[in-house]
Structures are given as C-alpha cells and as structure tokens.
Amino acid sequence: MTNAEIHDFLEKAIGENNVMLFMKGTPEEPRCGFSLRTSGALNTLDVRYAALDVLPDPRIRQELSGLSGWPTIPQLFIGGELVGGCDIVMEMYEKGELAERLGADMPEDEDVEPAPAPGEMPVSNGPIPLENKLNR
Amino acid sequence: MGSGLSKSPGRADAIFVDVPSADQLKTRIEAALPDAQVRVEDLTGGGDHFRAEVVSGQFDGLSRIEQHQLVYGVFGKEVGGAIHALSIKTSTPGES
Known about the structure:
The structure holds 2 protein chains of 2 kinds.
Chain A: H1 3-16, E1 19-23, H2 33-45, E2 50-53, H3 58-68, E3 75-78, E4 81-84, H4 86-94, H5 97-102, H6 130-134
Parallel strand pairs in A: 1-2
Antiparallel strand pairs in A: 1-3, 3-4
Chain B: H1 9-18, H2 22-32, E1 37-42, E2 49-55, H3 64-75, E3 85-91
Parallel strand pairs in B: 2-3
Antiparallel strand pairs in B: 1-2
C-alpha cells in the first residue's frame, strides 16, 4: 500500500464515519493509556463510533498527522472535524460538552471515571472492519 | 567515572543529549509565548511523558484545539518523537 493510498483511506474514514477515533490498539484492547481513556469516554457515553488502530504501520500515523496537523495519538474526529486528543476529549467529557456534541446522555453517576476494566468494556459497535484493510 | 565504564562513552553521552527535561520544555514554551505562565511536569521521570500547564493571554479567542496546537507547535516533530507524549492544559489569565 502506498502512502497516497493510506492518505486517501484516512480521508475517507474521517469523511464517512461521523465519530472516528484513531488510537493505539483497539477499543477492546487499547495499547496506550491515552487511547484507553479516550475510547473509554466514548464507551461510557454509549455512542456509535469507528476506531482505527494506527500501530500496524507507522505510515498511518505519519499520514494522519500530516492531514490533521495534530502530532499525537489518539485523535478524535466528529463530523469530519478534528476535535482533539486525549486531554481535550477528557476535558470535554468532564464538562458534558462531549455528550452534548454527540447527542448522548451523560451517565447517571458523573463521578465515574470512564476507564472500564477490559473485561467489562463494551464492544464498540462502530464499523470496525476498517482496521483490517490497512493491517496487511 | 571509573575507567571500567569507558567502553562505550559515546553511546552514554548520546542518551543524555536525546532526553529532554521538564525545565527545557518549560523554557522553550516561555520563549515562544513570552507572557505565559508555564508549569511542566515529567510524569514518569523518564523524559518522555510530560504534562504542561500553560496560562497565556495569547490563547484568548482561540478554540481549545488551536490553543493546544500553539503549544505543540513549539516542539514541531519532536512531539511523538523524542517527546513521546505531551499532555497539555491551557487557559487564559482570566480563567481559573
């Protein structure tokens, strides 16, 4: 797969998925604490989202940062627009802004930290097959 | 250093040069945003996971994402490279 193909694939993923998360690992098996917390926030809000693991090929990350202008992973896009990384997503989550933006309800107990244990982590219902296309 | 450690001095030097310190990050942010109050913490002590709290009037009128990009911009490609992770909290002097 060429860099241009990866670039096009990423643009398409961002355009076609209303809530698109680029992370290290998967929502079921995050490989980094920042990715864990970010996908955990989305899981807690019970929203539908697509997730792509950037780890299988370093070029995914290069191309993604090239098109988003954001240097780190995770990166969350909503409606085709970069919302931010872990810090911004967590701050928005805590202030209820993320729920509002996604039209989701905040969980009853607002003090709950959105970092569910692996065993209880809800399976993301987003169009996950994305990742297989890049994972040669 | 004792002579017993002299087998690969070049390599040891390189390691020290490559690892940024919290103070260096603070100095560089302050140089780029002269009015800023900056606190930088090395979260792991390993020189690769940092947290920066930056208060600056230059953030006024910028979205949160633009504020963070301003701070990331100070380090360019080092973020994600030598600086593996830089967690950022930004605010303007008026905010708490």
